[in-house]
Amino acid sequence: DYFSSNFGPSHHIEKLVITAPNESSYIFLPVGIPYANWTFGPVMQMEVLREVFWLQNNLTEMKVPYVDEEGKHRVITLQDVCFKPQSPTNNNCSILSLLNYFQNIYDRLLNTTHDPFGEVIYNASFHIHFCVRYPSYPGGELN
Predict the structure, then answer these.
(1) What distance in Å separates the CA atoms of residue 40 and residue 119, rounded to the nearest whole number?
(2) What is the pTM of this model?
(3) Is the dihedral of CA 142, 14, 93, 134 positive or negative?
(4) DSSP labels for 83-126?
(5) pLDDT tens digits, residue range 16-65?
């Protein structure tokens, strides 16, 4: 209260740090890109990304019962307490997540393309690498 009344409202950013139970990294060898071998850490493994997706989805959809000062029963959601930097034009919460590269859509995370011989030529690892390397590229396989 003292800080807000003297310095204006502040935004308290909450963080959730995800670690992977398996600490080994893996190498992705993209087909058709000579001499490319990209090393990804354990948090980039598909099993971990799937779990992070479900955890993030559950957190964003959570509903918490609450009794206010007047004794009224309410339900609080993330939308009630999150930071919305583009409000009032855009009232979406600011969530910084690796899953944003997939527009937080589960099927896009799972999207995999194989060549005629069964080799993976496009998957989540390739997509993340591409997005990080070319952040302003307007298109992409998952659009």
Answers:
(1) 19
(2) 0.74
(3) negative
(4) --TTTTT--------GGGGGTT-HHHHH--EE-TTS-EEE-HHH
(5) 888 888 778 888 877 777 777 888 888 888 889 999 999 999 999 999 99
